[in-house]
Sequence to fold (867 residues):
Amino acid sequence: MSADRPVAESEGRLERFNEDRDRILAEVERRVVGRLLAQAARGGDHSLEYVLNDVCYSEIRRLEASGGRKQKELDRWRDLAGRLLQMSEEEKRDELIALVRHYGRDVVGNFDPRVYRFATGVLPAGLGFLMSPVRGLRSGLDALRNMDERISVEGELDIAHACAERGTLVVTPTHSSNMDSVVIGFALMLAHLPPVTYGAGKNLFTNPFISFFMRNLGAYRVDRRLRFELYKDVLKEYSTVLLEHGYHSLFFPGGTRCRSNVVENHLKLGLLGTTVTAYKNNVRAGSPQRRIYIVPATINYRLVLEAETLIADYLAETGKNRFIITDDEFSRVGRLLEFARKILAHSGACVIRFGRPLDVFGNDVTDHGDSIDRTGRLVDPASYVRGADGAVTDDDQRDAEYTKLLGQKLVRVYPRETVFHATHLLARAMFDRACQAAGTRDVYRLLRAPGSLLVAPAQEIVIAVDELRRRIANDPAYGRLHAQVAAESSAAIVDDAASALATYHTRPVVTRHGDQLAVGDVKLLYYYQNRTMHIPPVRVEMRA
Amino acid sequence: MSRAETLGIVGAGSFGSALAAVVARTGRRVVLWSRDPQVVSAIESTRRSPRLPEAELPASVIATTDPRRLASEARTIVLAVASTDARTRAREIGQVVDGAHILIHAVGALSEDQRVTEILAEATPALRLGALAGPAIPADLASGQFSSMVIASRFDEVITEARRLLNAPPALRVYTSHDVIGVELAAAFSGALAIAVGLADALSVGPGPRAVLVTRGLAEASRLGCAAGGETRSFHGLAGLGNLMVRAAENHREYAFGKSLLGGRKPERDWPEGARAAVAAVRLAAKLGVRTPVLSGLAAVITGAITPKEAARLAADTVATEE
Fold:
């Protein structure tokens, strides 16, 4: 199959979404309410009173923490909490239905084919518009001209096309930046892969322009402040039903943006688990050939817009996945323009690499999308959800284990599909050099190291970069070099990366003083070198 | 009898035959697969396995050389073969099973440095895997004496099915665990420690040093197992301590091998599973950065790098730390 062939049928699926929306919501409501009522009938912690109380408690806490700006809403939850003990089962049931419907409508996305055609038809201008306030439109357009040279796609595209025609794709990229959902949308278009629906953090909808496009290009809202089970049930069921209906989806298995910039090795499996459930439901419905494919992808930026905030959060250990950053670089319109002007200023500034698709049990697939085991034998994926008599069986623990196996497979795949930019190589070489000088790889000790330990002759760094390139080229498990990096000399790579790292962030990461390179910001150096963290350090002989 | 009520067993050796006898006595059907037509023929004609003649096999034990029959008539299959055959047999059953099968092994050793569930995952399409381990001796199982084993799997379904099909008290009680790595490594390293005990007895150490060897050996095996992703308690349970107590007995191959080491290094072809486990443990310890003085000393004796007396002296020089 030719890579430039649009996947017409599968691309058209999302266009049907608006017609399907009410049916999908009704199905979500029917399933969630049915399940919770069945559980409630068994009593104990699953009683409706507990379920509703969990919602009230969480919502009251959330609204109280917001400073009482939504007093009316707060009063409503307090009123419901107060009435719970007196409510009849019938009343609780009605309240449950109303809440499931409410959260379902809060989550649900929209797909406007006109907006999609506009966005894709006028790209790169469309994307420029998307990331620019009205006042900055012209400059945004200028900056984003020849966008497809700046964002490139590579990888197993032919197989992804075959899988898209045969089943439903679930694209699972690494997650570094809030720009990811926009960038991957563009990458899918460049790769002639169909548009996807995806869950986007509600905080991303604060920018009205981005919100407009996200809303109309298939994004559904995920409010990570809502941590009660009912909301998670609605969210997961929504994703499950979308997949069963054949809507291509996108999950970031890392959950939030990776604070440290390491290639993700701890995944959140909640939404990923809906792929197993959806496929099981397809098999039960008599459609085992309606396959669901996991498409691992890595998004590889030369520079990351939010690097300063992310690494500071990581190092302070206030973040990781416990804290939602609401005021980072992404929320400032000016920085979005900077993303366009500086981060995407160079050709190949961002590479999206698509790995070979997997089935939902983590098996590899053939070029035609058939599941194979590790010896290459064809395997029927439906057999994984069947019991001794061949009937489909429900077993949440089994499915959770399947999802863990899938997650482990993704963790093994991501490093291999990682693409290194010059910035990563220079950062790693400088970091190794600083570690060697300081006698430690502990970043907290390096943060207190004297400046004299953070300087190195440029020529020695060139040699170290050369060695790193050789190691990466020799071991596919480490990842791969950006095509431009592979073609350049190590000296040119060091020059290019030093220039980029010196000028983009508010503090220079690395600066050049004559023949010397100096670390300007250890935190950011650590952030960029972390992309190579899975490559073990080796002793590199250098002059003292 | 339905497929769900049938247990498949790969290997008609002493353990596979004993397990078949125990399970069949509970009224279940067993399909016992052997590659050897003579063994199959003997079972069909005499109702006894040549590898365990003292066990009578009820009529519900069906012996076959056809792996397809095994896979089609049993969904849950126990691999009961020597560690040296594990990979070959896994490849063979990999040809006939699918994702609906439950595969459990009772190998109790590593195979070429790998855990057998890892081999099953590589060689077959099955994902629902388990490990059965513990101090169940074929002769005890055959005679209906009190025996216990532990089934470990990540999947509750595997644990439930294994208990449903294998639990046959008092002859066989099946305990449960989710710690697959721990149970597999504990079973494997217990073989190595049994050799160490045999060697210590050959050196005529007293009961005190013998007890120190056993406790410190288990402690470091447990440390290594934890570093590899297992849990400490598996090393003190049936798979670890339980197996060690059975294997460190006069009539056991590993204990006898340990005693024979006093006479010098033995060729690799004569090594029991515990000897290979000791060498594999040292490699794993080096990879994971775990200190293993007992296993390292033992491996050095097995490979001929040091003499048993030198190993004893090195053990005596070990610095005591917090237990």
Summary: Chain B touches chain A through 22 residues (CB under 8 Å).
